[in-house]
Amino acid sequence: MSVKIRKSLVASALVGAAALASNNVMADPLNDLHKAGATIQTAAVKSQTKIDNIYGQTQELIADYRSTVDETEIMKVYNDHVQRLVDDQNSQIESLERQIAGIDKTKQNVVPLMYRMIDTLEQFIKADVPFDTEERVERIEKLRDIMTSASVTTSEKFRQVLEAYMIEKDYSTTMVANQGTLNIDGRDISVDFARLGRIAYVAQSFDQKSAWVWNNTTKQWEALGDEFLKPIKETIRMARKQAAPDLVKLPIFGAE
């Protein structure tokens, strides 16, 4: 009995030892597998982290790229705009340079023209009906003075020459009366003058008994008959706005 029990214990001990040995043999591969799995997991986490970092960096680069592209497009549009402005300014500069060159040439042509205009106006006054002669001659002299003045611009000189022409033109549409003297046969006679444009220039003595008309062809005053005394008197009154405008009979010399 005891011998069987001992054999049984020995057998159990052998079986246990074998089982323990078998467990130890199986435990090593499992540990290796767990270690390998853990290593792979760690590597995977690191790889994912790297991927995440790379992705983040890539997104940042893409954003920077897009921003750079947008800025480039904006700069291109702006540069095109600036270029158009520069082109327009260059065009204006060229235009101004042409105008300046034209002004210089115009001045060269205008100055001789003004001198000719002044000479022509002076000749016209000398040939015209002799009213306000002193004032008109003084105007010519003033024009000649400003032509040699460096302080007066060319444009202002031209303006004054044109103004003198306009004044002479307006004389043709005015009716005026004034007083003065006529030298008739060596005698100075006080008279009332009346001028109807350049159509008629007449005079009447203060006593209204004598009348004369200027003959611009002969350049002298000619006596009128008594039939003109009343019309000339009415013309003088109308010129002074003492009577309403009306038809009157006046001596008129036709153009030759």
Features:
256 residues, 14% strand, disordered N terminus, 4 helices, DUF3450 domain-containing protein, alpha+beta
Describe the structure.
This protein has helices at 2-127, 133-147, 154-170, 229-239; strands at 175-184, 187-196, 200-205, 211-215, 220-223. By secondary structure, the protein is α+β, with helices and mostly antiparallel strands. Strands 1-2-3-4-5 form a 5-stranded antiparallel β-sheet, covered by helices on one side. A hairpin with a 4-residue loop joins β4 (211-215) and β5 (220-223). The longest helix is centred in the first third of the chain and has 126 residues, at 2-127. The termini are far apart. Pfam families: DUF3450. Keywords: Coiled coil, Signal. Residues 79-106 form a coiled coil.
User: Per DSSP, what share of the residues sits in E-state strands of 2 or more residues?
Assistant: 5-15%
Q: In order across it, which strands form the biggest sheet? A: 1-2-3-4-5
**Average pLDDT metric:** 83
Q: What sort of overall outline do the alpha carbons produce when their principal axes are compared?
A: rod-shaped
How many helices? The count is: 4
Radius of gyration: 61 Å
Helical content class: 55-70%
Strand pairing plus helix content: what structural class? alpha+beta
